[in-house]
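Batch manifest, entry 17 of 40.
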Amino acid sequence: MPRVGSRWGIVVLACSFIAGCASLNYPVNTPLSVEHGAGLPSIPDVGGETAIALSFSGGGTRAAAFAFGVLRGLDEMPVAGGSKRLDQIAFVSGVSGGSVTAAYFGLKGRAALADFRERFLVRNAEEGLRTNIDLNNLAAGFGGGVNDASRFPAWLDANLFDKATMGDLMRFGKPIVWINASDLFNRTPFVFSQTTFSALCSDLRTFPLSQAVAASAAVPVAFVPIVIESFPEACSPAPSAWAGRVLADRNSGAQVRAFAQALARYRNPDQMRYLKLADGGITDNFGLSGLVIARAAASQPYMPLTADKAVQLRRVIFMVVNAGQAPNGNWSGTLEGPSGTDLLDAVTDTAISSAVRSGFDAFRLSIREWEAATRKWRCALPHAEARRLGAPLNWRCSDISFEITELSFDRLEPKLAARLSAVETRFKLPAEEVDLVSQAGFEEVLDDPILAAARPRPRQSR
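Output type: structure tokens
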């Protein structure tokens, strides 16, 4: 048997002889025709005193199914006025497998609950992919990636998204949806938002939804990175005001600072022309970057809430839907190991888990700052302005709280948690595993103590 080094030598040699070894995708984003900024957010009328923000983690179809179960559970929880918790969703952020559920719910709303299982969860989304371990695929992987945009994005368009664009997620009355990928050059999260695309001088609304989701799930080597082009000549060279503010503040958070530096590079054609995007889980497997960056870019203390919602709400609940796996393998009980694929998996999982913990800490700090800033803004409002924005007669400016709850497998009974954690990270799962994971998300939502405590309290009308 040849040594590992010899095997890689064979692959490198073969790569130089196989036609098309250098894999690439061509950018499909378009330049701005008229320069514009990020604009004001437009969130749905959540119809009550509570708003919900969801972040769906990565993890292939396992993550998509867990997120789907959470949505089903929210649709089972009634609130005042005959609506359901599902109607209180204001923000949704997704990464990798979770981005599929986030995008489809953002596109169709409640109607997504009727057919997402059949259209995606129990389908073989790998049916058009090259997954065999052979010399051709090894050479393609070495040359940039095995599967290009003619495969997974095309499958998503044909079977799920029907050629929808990011603009279809941005219609009035829909939750704000963030799809998260990773910018490989800048080593930062890449959020498919108007803030990011304004820095690229590119039009977010025309960008295919399938390509955004494919970028979020593009595991390196298995997939060719999705390419985005910068068009600095299409708008003014000045960076956004908030990015300049972040870069000037030595105390700004590391994650937001790195993102602001990336935005500055997007405007400089000598530094960047083509962005290469891969799996969002590399930099943020919880999909929290969308909210953190939206907060950093906010021009008002309450944003990305709207002013009226910032006055009317009493609670904002952030639900982190984590379909991550527990540590696995049997090498921890032996003197030898890890080695081979176990070693590669351990290194990758360690890096991702470390990024997740750091990102979660940054997220908590951002939410606490947002809560304090919103409360301070409310208490500085003139009484007449508060009433105009919808404050009731017994309104108290300090009566608003931001709360975080994490839904994960380790909150479940240990035997079930171990079974769920053993479900593979793939886009092809047996129907019984899909339903098991989905049901776990459904039941965990119904048992969540923070949601249970968020029952409406009586208020006087205006």
